[in-house]
Amino acid sequence: MFKTATVLFMYLETPLHAGSGTSLGVVDLPIQREKHTGFPMVQASGVKGAIRAHARDVLGDVARDDINIVFGPDDNASEYASALAFTDARLLLFPVRSLAGVFAWTTCPTALNRLRRELTVVGGPDLPMLPQPRCDQALVPRQAGVVIEPLSVVLEEFTFTAQQEQSVSDLGAWIADRVLPDTGEYIFWAEQVQKNLVILPDDAFRDFVQLSTDVVARIRIDPDKGTAAGGGLWYEESLPPESVLWTLAMATDPRHRNGGSTMQTAADVLGFVTKRLFGQVSRMQFGGDETIGRGLVNVTGLEGQR
What is the pTM of this model? Predict the structure, then answer.
């Protein structure tokens, strides 16, 4: 059983394609989704693999012993297990085009209460309590930037009755302080999320995350003909930039003693990720399509003890 844990938040700066394989539907390469909710997600194995690759790139061979203790050995995986585990990365905020304010960061009670449950696990600060929005209602902050008169929110082609709530303002401040990176280039975004945050009913949020993702046509050119190669046209789905996900990182005491490592406790293992790995260089790449700029993510940690 793990001894300490933290929540890592992932802010998407470019579209993210964490693929689920080929499909027989309209979209040839869909993204990973939860079976029971339809919400986009990134499987834990992909999260762990990407962070391990990031550790190798940032820290190099000097930290090889530490990386093997934290993430498990490169070879002979049966020797010992890693001291760090991740959950699937779940969706917290999803950007949707808005008639006012350009776009809104949308979320729903199910997403928020999932995060609240995991904050309890790590002993982190609790989320503000929110009322349940009705099926035609959108909860917005007191100083909302997405509201049009008379008190309506228009997202894509759907109109919701706006209900201004202080608790949504409190939630926006919580997100700005703890979820968004604490760096100068995010000052603007921290101000925007406090104005353009929208709490939707669960069903409306589910519809947006299923129908409003980025779907682009990709093409491969035949170098001799200068036209599309046979089978070289496909449609690919991605989570849009400005989306926010989170994952729970859980640490145990090291299961192996390595001569080049000084890590002794679960706190050392977790600190390797939150302080040494993401303490200064917080941007990394998740998912596929790295060579066309997809999957650039800014990672922030919310430390806590169980």
Answer: 0.93
